[in-house]
Design a protein that fits this description.
By secondary structure, the protein is an alpha+beta fold. It folds into 2 domains: 133 residues, Impact, N-terminal domain (Ribosomal Protein S5, domain 2), CATH 3.30.230; 82 residues, Alpha-Beta Plaits (2-Layer Sandwich), CATH 3.30.70.240. It contains 5 helices and 11 strands; from the N terminus they run E-E-E-H-E-E-H-E-H-E-H-E-E-E-H-E. Strands 1, 7, 8, 9, 10 and 11 form a 6-stranded antiparallel β-sheet that branches. Helix 2 packs parallel to helix 3. The longest helix has 19 residues. The two termini are 22 Å apart.
Length: 233
């Protein structure tokens, strides 16, 4: 589920999260026990609890539904639960796997992600150390394969042009490397929205580029900041 939460007081202007969508699943087997990891993008505690409740219903016959999640650009909300496993052998290792996941060399900034590991007991006791490794590797392995995006707080600027030229201008802006937000259509004009770094120099350069592309017939108007998903290059 996509994150629509705003974080106006965040110290950070960017972080990494799971790509919007239905979530991601990955399964491993350890000594006949099945560990099914489900990763979901969540915006708050309620969303994380909803994901967990849904998986409890889906996998109602499983012995354990352990979870961990981290929220916010500053990762200031962190929760975990062992769900009946020996204390400290499931939830904490899962949370550490989320927190330690490097999204770039030396950078660990994954957030707004919930991980639920459903365990079907295979009849062989794993011991405390074995459980820690299994739950940690379940989440780490899923994160290695899951689609991630960069979430950045950007200044949304608008350019209002005639319908006839909007398509060409949008293509030119995309080709120039600009991140485009949702387009709005009015009776006589199209409003193109650009997501730009929130600094005066970047805004000035973009305004000059828009003026050059439209021969001075359109101007760039800065608006509010929003959190925008940007592909990881």
């Amino acid at each position: 589920m996509a994150d629509e939460t705003d974080y106006p007081r965040s110290r950070n202007s960017a972080y990494t999260t799971l790509a919007a969508g239905p979530g991601f699943r990955h399964e491993i087997e350890v000594k006949r026990s099945r560990f099914i990891t489900v990763l979901a993008r969540v915006s708050d505690d309620d969303a994380a609890r909803t994901v967990l409740a849904g998986l409890r219903r889906e996998f109602h016959d499983a012995r354990h539904h352990c979870f961990a999640y981290v929220l916010g650009p500053d990762r200031d909300v962190q929760r975990s639960n062992d769900d009946g496993e020996p204390s400290g052998t499931a939830g904490i290792p899962m949370l550490e796997a989320l927190l330690k996941r490097e999204t770039a060399p030396g950078v660990a900034d994954l957030s707004d992600v919930a991980a639920v590991v459903v365990r079907y007991f295979g009849g062989i006791l794993l011991g405390a150390g074995g459980l820690v490794r299994a739950y940690s590797e379940s989440v780490s392995g899923a994160l290695e394969l899951a689609p991630l995006v960069r979430r950045r707080r950007l200044r949304i600027c608008s350019v209002r042009v005639r319908h006839a030229v909007a398509g060409r201008l949008e293509n030119d802006l995309r080709a120039a490397g600009y991140v485009m937000a949702e387009t709005a259509y009015e009776a006589q004009t199209t409003v193109l929205r650009l997501a730009l770094p929130d600094d005066p120099e970047a805004l000035a350069r973009a305004a000059e580029r828009v003026a050059a592309m439209t021969a001075g017939s359109a101007s760039l108007r800065p608006g509010e900041t929003e959190w925008i998903d940007v592909p990881i290059s």
